[in-house]
Automatic annotation (TrEMBL):
Compartmental location: Cell membrane
Matching SMART domains: AAA (SM00382)
PROSITE patterns: ABC_TM1F, ABC_TRANSPORTER_1, ABC_TRANSPORTER_2
Domain ABC transporter: 340-575
Any one GO molecular function term: ATP binding
Keyword Nucleotide-binding: yes
Domain of life: Bacteria
The organism of origin for this protein: Sphaerisporangium flaviroseum
Entry membrane topology: Multi-pass membrane protein
Gene3D superfamilies xref list: ABC transporter type 1, transmembrane domain, P-loop containing nucleotide triphosphate hydrolases
Protein name (database record): ABC transporter ATP-binding protein
Amino acid sequence: MSRAHGSWRPLLDHLRPHRGLLALGGALTLAGSLAGLAMPLLAKTAVEAFGAQRSPAGPLLGLTVVVLAAGALAGALGRYVLERMGEGIVYRARRDLVDRMLRLPVCEVDRLKPGDLLSRVTSDTTLLRAVFTDGIVESVTAVFMLVGAVVMMALMDGPLLLVTVGVLVLVGGLVGLVMPRIRRASVQAQESVGEMGAALDRVLQAFRTVKAAGAEQREIDAVAGAARRARDRGVAVAWWTSVAGTASWGAAQLTFVAVLGVGGARVASGALQVSSLVAFLLYLFYLVAPIAQLLQGLTRVQGGLAALSRIREIEDLPAEETSPAGPGGTDRVQAAPVGVRFENVAFGYGGGRPPAHHEVSFAVPAGGVTALVGPSGAGKSTVFALLERFYERQGGEISVDGRDIRQWRPFELRAALGYVEQDAPVLDGTLRQNLVLAAPHASDEAIGRVLRLTRLEELVARLPAGLDSEVGHRGVTLSGGERQRVAIARALLRRPRLLLLDEATSQLDAVNELLLREVIAEVSSETTVLVIAHRLSTVAGADQIVVMEGGRVRATGTHADLLGTDDLYRELAATQFLAARPA
Ligand SMILES: Nc1ncnc2c1ncn2[C@@H]1O[C@H](COP(=O)(O)OP(=O)(O)OP(=O)(O)O)[C@@H](O)[C@H]1O
């Protein structure tokens, strides 16, 4: 689980930028609470006055009212300042967490579940606020109240104080025992909330499939199971909190009885005045509230520390260097196409899986179209993942434009490459927002050019609001072929020196297939195209074909060469590729 257990340092890190507000809010809250301590003093004076058969002095009453009113005002202001600080802490934690998440390397994010990540940004950061507003401040105020009450009690009567302190020590020991249990249960509760997010995300990502499979009830049960675990851990927190609360309340009542007994005897023997005993008992009552407040504050801190440990797990992951000035403009002059070379590249995804690449060697010349073909699982997409440096090769050499890939800074490398994934993700938003994702400052001419290149002009003309039409979540309003061409247009807008195109495996209709072939042919005149080809029509037009199987390169050549020399290729060609058998 987490290394933050028992460590307060991360909390202090979050607090540091807000220490001015914390000091102000803390001081105001404290002033508000301490003003309450004036009440028993007033009671003492009043009882003494009654004893002397006179009424308490008016000025004293007036002063007490003023002190209490000022205290109430200070308390309210303090609360506001602290809540404000809490919001500031949550904002900063969320911003930093999102910043870190988006800079994580792909290999890290592949391990994590999006729903769980989401719950860390939303739910865990919210718990963090409670640590500072209710947790730390309430605890510190409670400690001051406790100390204040104890000092006042010491002034009243030493022996009675001893009785009280004895009980306080007992309560302290008990709280010390219970807190780690509350922390553990809080961590588990937050983990379950994360699991719930992950389970829900799983369903929402494949909503149609879940519906079509009639699997709604099973998925509901899975999400509800995680919710149930969160509830159970929450109940455990409530149990331990109420154990501590009840025990400390009982201890306070016991002390009250003991003080009444011992104090009564001391009053009878003349060692103590009745007024002092009354004030002492009132202070004793004052102790109950801060003890409960301290308990609640410490419980909040436990929950916050649990949340913080989950936030730190992400913050501790390595971050990638991203482009300092964001994605570059796109009206930049087209840089020359680049070539790529793989030499004896070895790579495995780890986790006990067999290597995905064994001594993979091939060269892609600058310009033109090179097609990667091979059965499913042959390692074709892995070539792209290594070229984009989503993962690092483990052996051999990869060079881009004659330079070792490790000498390229990742953002520099990615700026030179255009990457179109197989399922051509289209993001929620307008068509224009999707196109300019990698090139936010693209001019209308540049957008028009890629629309023409990718044969999307007709689509744009058909859409109700043209480029500013919403494409829906994951681009549901577009067809598969349109999504693919939007993804290609997006990649081209950045004027890549090498276009990595993972062709859709889904069947495209004849028109879309023809369009795609035309697009690839035209694009290859201005950049290198490396395409993972799943259809014969794409392969037939390629300048070079690399045949992969089982993580190795089997053969390289043109369509005509390979038909004559490679059995696997001939077999793939005979089945038009789409029905390729697994590796
Ligand atoms: N992120 C990943 N984590 C673990 N293993 C992976 C990952 N991606 C791919 N693999 C495994 O690596 C091997 C090569 O996969 P790769 O995606 O490169 O094949 P492919 O030739 O592109 O297949 P397809 O044509 O079906 O997309 C496969 O055995 C696959 O299961």
